[in-house]
Amino acid sequence: DTAVSQTPKYLVTQMGNDKSIKCEQNLGHDTMYWYKQDSKKFLKIMFSYNNKELIINETVPNRFSPKSPDKAHLNLHINSLELGDSAVYFCASSLHTDNSPLHFGNGTRLTVT
Amino acid sequence: TQLLEQSPQFLSIQEGENLTVYCNSSSVFSSLQWYRQEPGEGPVLLVTVVTGGEVKKLKRLTFQFGDARKDSSLHITAAQPGDTGLYLCAGGGGTSYGKLTFGQGTILTVHP
Question: Does B19 touch chain A (CB under 8 A)?
């Protein structure tokens, strides 16, 4: 059973389009995250939700809007995609918000052309 | 802003060699986690260290947390091709509660 699953695995789209990435975890964790990994493999947190409430919102363009319908799901919607948005986006979850170890999904490779 | 400097960025060695990856910061962390990431997959937790001076072993991997909890190292003995991957350190606590600070990563390639 996949613990943290995100879809799609690959996303190729044109500039200006709007796209969504979905994430679900079946670990019963309270906290979910979105991370962005750039071409140099650096992982940077974007958002964190605890029991459906936003607790971390890093300096991310407001074109990115996370939504958590329940604590097992955290989706990411991106409006007006730009070339610089191309990256691998990882969903993750942790038991609590206290720097508990992260369980990552397998990533969504977004390519904006 | 807390920063974690990881070195080296790239490491290419032959099977059987030993290696050490370093993770350094000027900030104190309450815990330090090490992850390994393979191509096309997400990072997977290897170990968490929480006590200054702590040493943990995972088969051929030895992890150490500095006495002052500002640095950590990962030592691999007799590396194997299966150890190839991206190794990431991540610090938790301090001024970044609820948010892990990741190092830049070390890409390790072990040649048969």
Answer: no
